[in-house]
Each structure stands twice: as structure tokens, then as C-alpha cells.
Specification:
This protein is an alpha/beta fold. 38% of the residues lie in helices and 21% in strands. It is globular and about 60 Å long. The mean pLDDT is 93.
Length: 460
Amino acid sequence: MMDSTPAVDLDLIRRYNQPGPRYTSYPTAPHFSHDYDATDFARDLAAADTDTPLSLYVHLPFCRSLCYYCGCHMKVTQRADSIQRYVDALKQEIDQMAALVSAERPVVQMHWGGGTPTYLTAEQIRDLGTHIRRRFRVADDAEISIEADPRGLTEDRVAAAAEVGFNRMSVGVQDVNRVVQEAINRIQPTETVAQALRWAREYGFEGLNVDLVYGLPHQTPERFQHTLDVVDRLQPDRIALYSYAHVPSIKKHQRVIDEDALPVPETKLRLFKQGLEHLTARSGYRFIGMDHFARPTDALARAQDTGDLHRNFQGYSTRADAEVVAFGVSGISQLRGAYAQNVKALPAYYEQVANENAPTVFRGVRLSPEDQLRRHVIMQLMCNFHLDKAAVAERFEIDFDDVFADAWARLSLLEADGLLIRTENALHVQPPGRLLIRNIARAFDAYCDHADHPVHAQTV
């Protein structure tokens, strides 16, 4: 079992807190190209091995109101007919895509993200969930999760989700303090959150996650400690502790946030340190990596112990062998040899589905042999904090030292700062390096060497 309490050296973090990819994919999404289109993806999907399991992602973009901090692909609407139109289009897309996939392939994982999936009515949740099960072979032990906004969540929605097989729920909390909630336009009493978790437990949900965000306007160590104490009482199985990325040039609605109310960089780093130390040392969670924490008995922690942890656009995953097929606007599919992203605009999505132009892909990338090699290395580091050179060499039939000579050299300074240890046969990430794993992984990223590489968020 891995040490769950990495040391938080603020001086070290300050030095390495630079822009860098999150490595939910490799190559990362900014490197996707329009040269890879729906025809390419359909061909790759149809050619996939019939014994490779599937992970389905369904994107539901609608929200009742706008949270000012939000960085997701979403759309505010109060119109029930708009949501129903989208659900109907999703069902059409699911039918079209199911025809491309072997019926033998089991679905071992499914995730509904957004937006707000629980903005759907109970009837719509039941209808869409049932439709997917009619078109795909969902395994009895599949991990099926849904993102939930406690505001507006009702018992009948939770019951409907349980009825169609959902067994995990992720609840957005962000911060429990009223002054912070007002600043981000997301007011939700703690009792509303507690009720959502009670319903989920009553209806048999086995894994409950709570999302928190640090770096929000008006957050202080005292207020954030109150949020952490409340979460202790809620007792979720997993916690995601995200860094708020203030990018008003990209997300125009973030301009509403008073920048003077945002924590200064030094305070934000201290909030991160406070959260990590509280969740691990006091609350007993395992630091899985990046921004994820889990109980030591949770499936994520067990997968990390056995070396089976994986990472995709939904974050850390226990089903490393599954290929992801995404439905809905902006969804990203992940095959062993390709990534493909669906169109982002609703009008274009509706047009393609109506014309039976599935997949609704508008860009992507087919991985070269080198891409697949580097993806494997980066994912090993991101998920397991260890790299066995001989295992990589044998799997890809390469001379590791020859292929990665430049990357190995780039690790010298990180090793001198105590982030990792290199031996003749392996790379071992040390506790301080687990907090800066994106910096370590970047040494193996061939695209980050390019002068025109995209700008990313800070690594912490």
C-alpha cells in the first residue's frame, strides 16, 4: 500500500507550479486535428477487438443556472422541450453508434457528465438509461456513475437512476460557505447536500464522491476549514479537490467574478496544502493522485495497489482495459489507437444525428506507435508513480535507454530536488513528486517540446 500522505513543501511547489497538461489523454486535446474525422473513427471503432470491454460516456450539457466558476461545456436553459429534444437526439445517436460496435463487447463502465445530468426528470433518466441497456450489453458488475447537483435533486430522480443501474454518484459541493457560494452563484445549504447523499445511500449507491474547489473568491483558510469539517461529517467514499482555473479570456462568464476577491497565489497554495493534509492525515483518505482522494478500501485505491489504475477524460478509472465511446456534444471517445471528439455546437449535433451522420465526430487523432508508447509511460507515472524500464521495453520491443535518452536527462533536476529516484531499471516517484506528477510526466511528452505547444493551467 502506498503512502497516503505526501509531504507538502510549499517552496518546492512554488518552483514547479508551471503550466502543464493534465494528461487525461496523450496526445492532449489541443493536439487533436480536423484531419481525423467521423469516417476515420467509424472505421477504427468497427475494427476494434470484440473482446475489448467498453466504457460509455454520456454528456448532458444543460443546467438550470450558471455557476460563475464553471469551466465545463454547458448550456443554461429553463425549457423542458429543449432538454427532451436533446434526449431524443441522444437516443438516435446511441442507435447509430451501437450498429458500429460488436454486440459481444461488454459495457463495464458508464458515466453521465455535464452540465447537470440530474436536471433530467426521473422519467427521462429512466428512459435514457433503459434505451442504452437495450442497445448495449451492460455487465452485471459494471461501474455506473452519474454527476448530481444537490440543488433541484429529488428522491424520484435518485430512485430512477438506481432503477436503471447507477451505483455511483458524484455530488458537487465546491464550498459550503454562503459568502463564497454567493460569489460563484451556487447557493446550496449543507442540509441539501446531506439529503442528496442520504437518498443515494438509501437507494443502494455504493460509491459516493464529493467535489470541492479551492481558489474560489472569498475563500480563506478559516472558511475552507469549515468546508473540510462539513465534508468529514458527510463521509463520502471519494473526494475530488479541484483547483479553480480563472480564465475569463476563454470562459467569458468568469468575468462576473471579482478578481480582487480571489485568493492570492500564496494563499491558494496554502489552501491546497491545507486540504491535502486534512484529507489524508486527519480524515484518512488515500491521495490517489492529481486532485483525487479515496478511502483505502475504495476501488480506486485497490486498483492503484494492483497497478490497474487508469486515467481518461473522466479522471482516474478502475477499468484500464476499456475503450471509451462518448455520446452527446463535446464528448471524447478513447480507443486504443485513437481519440475522437464530438461536435460542440447543438445545431451541428442535431443536424448530424438527423442525417444519420454518426459518429458526430469533428476532430481527433490517430496515435502513432510512438504516441502509444509515450501514452503508456505517462499513464504509468500518472496512475502508479512508478516506471519499470524493462517492462516497457519488452511490451513495446524497444531499447528504453535509447528511445528515452532525452527524457531521462530532463529528469536530472527533478531528481536533485527529491521528486523522484532513478535506478538502472526503474523510476520511482517520491512523495513530494506525487504532488508534481504532471511535471515528471511532461519529461516524456514529445509535444511539449514544440514551440507552439498550447497554454495549460498551472500544475497545482
